[in-house]
Amino acid sequence: MVLSGKLITELGIKTPAEKFYKLFAAELHEAQVICERVHHTKLHEGEDWHDTATVKHWTYVIDGEVHTCYDTLEEVDEQNKKNTWKLFGGDIDKHYKSFKLTLQVIDKAEDGTAVAKWTVEFEKINEDIHPPNGWMDYISQCTRDVDAHLSKARAARKD
């Protein structure tokens, strides 16, 4: 059995790529207000949510269970609207030696729609651990929550 792997999902969104990416690049602390499955977030170390030296603590729900972990921002590529976070501690360390989450937001069409491409890279601590398939559902739901929130705000400004 393979110990490491990669899961990828691409989700169509109504929000323009720049606006969707901005939430994750500069307003990540808003996730707990927007995403139903994010229960709580807080800065664990550091003062800036979007600095690579900052450690954030997360409490979230996957597969109906409350989980916790920490993250650090590992890579920022503003030009390609791409960020990578390293997740560790809490429930992550119980199952994985390494766990990375990457978001890239890609403009899709002239109508302002885009694609949110999420990649989960992981290395399991042993062969008995299942791949993090629950993360894909969690990511999909959070993407829908953020897209709906940003689309609603966008529509309200047009009125």
TrEMBL record:
GO BP: defense response
Gene3D superfamilies: 3.30.530.20
Bet v I/Major latex protein domain segment(s): 2-153
InterPro entries named in the record: Bet_v_I/MLP, MLP-like, START-like_dom_sf
Similarity comment: Belongs to the MLP family.
Protein name (record): Bet v I/Major latex protein domain-containing protein
Organism of derivation: Pisum sativum (Garden pea)
